[in-house]
Design goal:
Two copies of one chain form a homodimer.
Chain A (H helix, E strand, L loop, with lengths): L2 E11 L8 E17 L4 E7 L13 H13 L4 E7 L10 H16 L10 H12 L7 H6 L2 E7 L2 E6 L5 E8 L5 H6 L4 E3 H19 L3 H7 L6 H4 L6 H10 L4 E4 L6 E6 L1 H16 L5 E7 L6 E5 L1
Parallel strand pairs in A: 3-4
Antiparallel strand pairs in A: 1-2, 1-12, 2-4, 2-5, 5-6, 7-10, 7-11, 9-10
Chain lengths: 311, 311
């Protein structure tokens, strides 16, 4: 194989109650990378399309390529690669944009070189890309983007990640308002201490969401999509948050919260029709104050990254 | 029916990571109550056996009978009842002693009067008994004692309780050392604030324990039986805690922690043989410093309270 074109999905992290531990993958949008082997060693970023020139072109500073550098060093390869990245989602959007780049990069190079590592073994590399992009090696976006499905990060040290089965009729509505929140800022405003009372509430909702998903109990999923710790703080960074959330719930969503660090918001619904209706009313709610949006409706993507083309 | 004799099981609350939200029921020990209808109104405690005279004999101050007073008031009955309570577990033991009394009391009176309320409707009454006995209306012991199985209290306000399926081969070892911890003290020493980092760790373990139980993944159950919030504080009240816990793990237990507020300790194991071996080594570890113990090995009791005899 001399050429590969691959895709990795956007993701919703936190999922209301599961700050830093829950995330799931979407069918769309997602980043696409094209890799072509070079005769000389070294990684070159040939082009990045769709980032409005905002991402670094130096291989060691871009999430898509830094993971490849680490990977090549790990397997002791001097293979040279030319990279073209198609950014299909906005930066700093709360949709796991940098994670999709890290994952598509590490997935594609592993495939291009004959799959020396398993998918799970790629996770620490993808997390390293996340560290370059946002300062901390979180796994709640790269985990689901790489592994597909609904992913739980039980522990970071040692890294312990598992998947949870979700109901077939579960659909996600993701709405991106055209305002930007810096992930580092969104983390900065969080308090370092949580009341024991709120910790207990959040634990109850975490248990309820996992059990609700696994038991296909949509009502329990709905009751458990409550975040008493992060959402009350971060939602102040998102204009019209309360209004948009209420619109989603009024349209039949099981629950609605911030996607990752925001400003994107997500809702879960039973059935595609409801999820489409929720997308419409959430977008209208943002639109009522003049904020334009882009929305996506998708099942939970069970596959993760995929090969689109090889040569 | 003029007479009923009923049983309600001891319970393990908290279950390592699930402070105030997790609990499960045991096959033994458990409290037994005998109720006999009286011709005159009013509740009389005729006898309490096994409490060494330490429990109050006034009906409005004892967990077993205060729940009956609330129940009779609720259904508008003036039925008189004579109560005999057999306490089959030590007080302040962390085995849900007061909860077993509340549950057996409310269960028995409901049966005696022709079951005017469903089992679930009895829960708030049993919680009221818990308030009398230990100052707060917790549900992590009365919930499993009344409903059987592994119970999650997702929320206290509104009360939202659900059950989680557990693997068939899951066995509990419960070891009661002959030292006493007052539940009010055990709660008093807890900090009111938790670091966000520890909250995230605990949430990961809560998710892991629920998924591990439901997926019958014993290894995930084992990895998730970690409590970074409560156990480090409360374990200092239990002599030889670290030593006893290590003995349990060395003997093959999946995990080991404090049962409720202690001083009893519990372990979960795969299979009865392992659970029996764990009971032996935990008891020996307490015994090495001259502390006598009583131990119980049991599957998770799925039934909750039961009628033993009627007339």
């Amino acid at each position: 194989m001399n050429y590969i074109k691959a895709f990795a999905p956007a993701t919703v992290a936190n999922v209301a109650c599961g700050f830093d531990i829950f995330g799931f993958a979407l069918d769309e949008p997602g980043d696409i990378v094209e890799l072509r082997k070079r005769d000389e060693p070294g990684i070159i970023i040939k082009d990045i399309i769709g980032d409005e020139g905002r991402l670094p072109r130096e291989p060691e500073r871009n999430a898509v390529s830094v993971v490849m550098l680490k990977f090549l060093e790990h397997i002791g390869s001097t293979q040279g690669v030319e990279v073209t990245l198609h950014k299909n989602m906005p930066l700093g959007s709360g949709m796991g944009s940098s994670s999709a780049s890290s994952v598509v990069g590490i997935f594609a190079i592993n495939e291009l070189l004959g799959r020396p590592l398993t998918q799970r073994e790629l996770l620490p590399f993808a997390m390293e890309g996340e560290r370059i992009a946002c300062g901390a090696a979180h796994a709640d976006n790269v985990g689901p983007s790489l592994l597909g499905g609904f992913v739980v990060i039980r522990s970071y040290s040692p890294l312990d990640v598992f998947k949870v089965k979700v109901p077939d009729e579960l659909y996600c509505t993701l709405v991106h308002p055209d305002v930007e929140v810096n992930t580092k800022d969104a983390r900065y405003i969080l308090r370092n201490e949580v009341s024991l009372k709120n910790t207990i509430s959040q634990m109850g909702n975490v248990a309820g969401l996992i059990a609700g998903l696994m038991q296909e109990d949509y009502d329990l999923v709905s009751r458990s999509m409550v975040d008493v710790i992060i959402e009350p703080v971060r939602s102040i960074l998102i204009p019209e948050f309360d209004h948009v959330k209420q619109a989603a719930l009024d349209s039949g969503a099981l629950g609605c919260s911030i996607s990752g660090a925001g400003p994107s918001m997500f809702a879960l619904s039973r059935g595609r029709d409801t999820a489409e209706r929720v997308a419409k009313t959430m977008s209208e709610a943002f639109g009522s104050v003049g904020i334009t949006t882009k929305s996506y409706v998708s099942q939970i993507n069970q596959q993760g990254p995929k090969v689109l083309e090889t040569a």
